[in-house]
C-alpha cells in the first residue's frame, strides 16, 4: 500500500521531530517540561497508532486505530499552538511542525472517511 507507507514514514519523521523538540523543552523546568510530556505522548502516538492499524485484524479495527491517530495529531497541533501562544517557543521555530500536524490531520481524516465508506 503506497499511501500507507507514505503516511507511516511521515508520521515516523514527525514523531522524531517532536522527540527532538521535547528534548530541548526538557532543559527548562516547570511548565515547559509539563507541556513537553503532553506533546511527547500525543506526537509519538500518531505514528504508533498508524503502525498498529497496518496490522489490524479487521476493517473496523483499522478505522478505529486511524481515527485515534487523527485525534492524536489534532492534540499535538493543540500543544504546539499552546507553546507558541505562551511564548515558550517562537512560532517561526514551530511553523514546520504545525504545518505537518495539519497535513497529517487532513490525510488521516481522508483515510478514516474512505475506510468507513468502503
From TrEMBL:
Source species taxonomy: Bacteria, Pseudomonadati, Verrucomicrobiota, Verrucomicrobiia, Verrucomicrobiales
Protein name according to UniProt: Four helix bundle protein
Superkingdom, taxonomy of origin: Bacteria
Record-linked InterPro entries: 23S_rRNA-intervening_sequence, 23S_rRNA_IVS_sf
Cross-referenced SUPFAM superfamilies: IVS-encoded protein-like (SSF158446)
Amino acid at each position: 500500500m503506497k499511501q500507507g507507507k507514505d503516511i507511516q514514514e511521515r508520521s515516523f519523521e514527525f514523531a522524531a521531530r517532536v522527540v527532538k523538540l521535547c528534548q530541548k523543552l526538557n532543559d527548562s523546568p516547570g511548565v515547559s517540561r509539563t507541556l513537553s510530556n503532553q506533546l511527547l505522548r500525543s506526537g509519538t502516538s500518531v505514528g504508533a497508532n498508524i503502525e498498529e492499524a497496518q496490522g489490524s485484524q479487521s476493517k473496523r479495527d483499522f478505522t478505529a486505530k486511524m481515527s485515534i491517530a487523527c485525534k492524536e495529531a489534532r492534540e499535538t497541533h493543540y500543544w504546539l499552538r499552546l507553546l507558541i501562544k505562551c511564548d515558550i517557543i517562537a512560532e517561526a521555530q514551530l511553523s514546520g511542525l504545525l504545518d505537518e500536524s495539519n497535513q497529517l490531520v487532513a490525510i488521516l481524516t481522508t483515510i478514516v472517511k474512505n475506510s468507513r465508506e468502503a
